[in-house]
Write a structure and sequence with these properties.
Strand order of the largest sheet of chain A: 2-8-7-4-5
Radius of gyration of chain A: 16 Å
Strand content of chain A: over 45%
Shape of chain A: elongated
Helix content of chain B: 10-25%
Structural class of chain B: alpha+beta
Low-confidence stretches of chain B: 18-24
Number of strands of chain A: 8
Radius of gyration of chain B: 18 Å
Largest sheet of chain A: 5 strands, mixed
Mean pLDDT of chain A: 90
Largest sheet of chain B: 6 strands, mixed
Distance between the termini of chain B: 40 Å
Mean pLDDT of chain B: 83
Shape of chain B: elongated
Number of strands of chain B: 9
Oligomer: heterodimer
Chain lengths: ~110, ~140
């Protein structure tokens, strides 16, 4: 497992019913592309987060397939519709099989 | 004519910029596009790709894509060692069909966004980004 991986999510705690809210996510990860070489000239093996998903009450908001061209500390900004109170679930899938999760509750009001 | 230190430096920088300039769409990018669209024709309108004209650091180039009514949007960097950047698939709870992220670019090149619409059609947008320092290491 990659070290020091810490997800951060910015989501509103309240929204009007049916409102589209902006979500910002950042996860600290080195996203080693597999293109770089170390001092000996041997390639450093690829180690990235290859998929990110966001769900609201189990329904998909966005599903992102990621390639090595995504920068270190992957950042995503997108919108979700909030029709009712519930939980936003954010999931990141690492190349090494690790899964990182974060959950934010959104209330109506 | 005498070259001052300043002139010489300017000339040197110009020469470097010229040698770094042209990367072009490679076969791998075309293959990725064909795999995504199945060879279907692409409309020029319907998808918006926002990228800076000049990126000082190729390690983090902010881009955003938007396509009303899109099911998914694929982003490609044709001049990278591997052209794929990412595929954004929008679910039923998505708000505006837009997303922003930061990507790596190896050098000056075209960034391409292809949107797959709900009716099965495709739209394409591309934007040339000049990169001062490439972002793929090696």
């Amino acid at each position: 497992m990659a070290e020091g991986v810490k997800p951060r999510v910015k989501a509103p705690s309240k929204a009007a019913a049916g409102e589209a809210v902006v979500l910002k996510t950042l996860i600290s990860h080195q996203m080693e592309s597999g293109q770089r070489k170390n001092a000996d000239g041997t390639p450093i093996p690829r180690s990235i987060i290859n998929r990110f998903t966001c769900e609201f009450n189990g329904k998909s908001v966005i599903d992102i397939q990621m390639e090595p061209a995504i920068s270190t500390n992957p950042y995503f900004e997108f919108e979700a519709v909030i029709p009712e109170a519930g939980d936003l679930k954010f999931t990141w899938y690492d190349d090494d099989g690790s899964v990182y999760e974060d959950v934010k509750s959104v209330a109506i009001g | 004519m005498d070259f001052t230190r300043r002139d010489t430096l300017a000339l040197g920088m110009g020469a470097v910029a010229l040698t770094v300039l042209p990367f072009r769409a490679n076969a791998a990018a075309d293959d990725a596009i064909a795999a995504f669209t199945g060879g279907a024709a692409m409309a020029d309108a319907g998808v918006t790709l926002t990228a800076p004209e000049i990126a000082e650091n190729g390690n983090t180039v902010p881009i955003s894509v938007e396509a009303e009514g899109a099911v998914s949007i694929m982003v490609l960097a044709a001049g990278n060692p591997t052209p794929g950047v990412g595929t954004f698939t929008f679910g039923e709870m998505a708000g505006a069909h837009s997303a922003s992220t930061r990507i790596r670019l190896a050098g000056t090149q075209d960034v391409i966004a292809i949107a797959k619409m709900a009716d099965g059609s495709f739209a394409k947008a591309s934007s040339n980004v000049k990169v001062t320092i490439g972002g793929c290491g090696g």
